[in-house]
């Protein structure tokens, strides 16, 4: 069986050491190669690269209304196992990371039932952590179906 592809995401940060503290320290991501201008992180098996930019060069984030919340249009994150979601929430709370959108369950009792929350890293990049009760529903189109 072929190894599953991994994604690579490069994104801007305004302070590399603050990024290291958040991604390695709070989230527990191992670091890889780095230079004075970037750091590689193992983000749940994927390559995340924080690139240093001047604060005025960091992009502003627009948002969209989703499920009664203003969700940042530009965000990334991880789909965790259902049993991994609450420990991640606890880890974020223990590190005093403020929630942009507090943890809650969407589509409760329906096919796409998922726990979700949003935070910002020290540079203002939005991250979403989510977990599906049934991971097979990750790409389901009809989330109005009740289980």
From TrEMBL:
<dbReference type="InterPro" id="IPR037523">
    <property type="entry name" value="VOC_core"/>
</dbReference>
<dbReference type="InterPro" id="IPR004360">
    <property type="entry name" value="Glyas_Fos-R_dOase_dom"/>
</dbReference>
<feature type="domain" description="VOC">
    <location>
        <begin position="5"/>
        <end position="132"/>
    </location>
</feature>
<dbReference type="InterPro" id="IPR029068">
    <property type="entry name" value="Glyas_Bleomycin-R_OHBP_Dase"/>
</dbReference>
<protein>
    <submittedName>
        <fullName>VOC family protein</fullName>
    </submittedName>
</protein>
<dbReference type="Pfam" id="PF00903">
    <property type="entry name" value="Glyoxalase"/>
</dbReference>
């Amino acid at each position: 069986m072929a190894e599953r592809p991994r994604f690579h995401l490069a994104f801007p940060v305004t302070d590399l050491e603050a990024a290291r503290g958040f991604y390695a320290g709070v989230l527990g991501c191992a670091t890889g190669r780095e230079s004075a201008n970037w750091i590689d992180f193992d983000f749940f098996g994927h390559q995340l690269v924080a690139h240093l930019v001047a604060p005025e060069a960091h992009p502003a984030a627009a948002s969209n209304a989703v499920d009664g919340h203003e969700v940042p249009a530009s965000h990334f994150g991880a789909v965790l196992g259902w049993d991994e979601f609450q420990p991640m929430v606890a880890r974020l709370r223990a590190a005093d990371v403020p929630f942009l959108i507090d943890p809650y369950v969407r589509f409760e009792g329906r096919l796409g039932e998922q726990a979700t929350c949003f935070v910002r890293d020290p540079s203002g990049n939005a991250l979403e952590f989510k977990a599906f009760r049934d991971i097979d529903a990750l790409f389901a189109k009809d989330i109005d179906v009740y289980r």
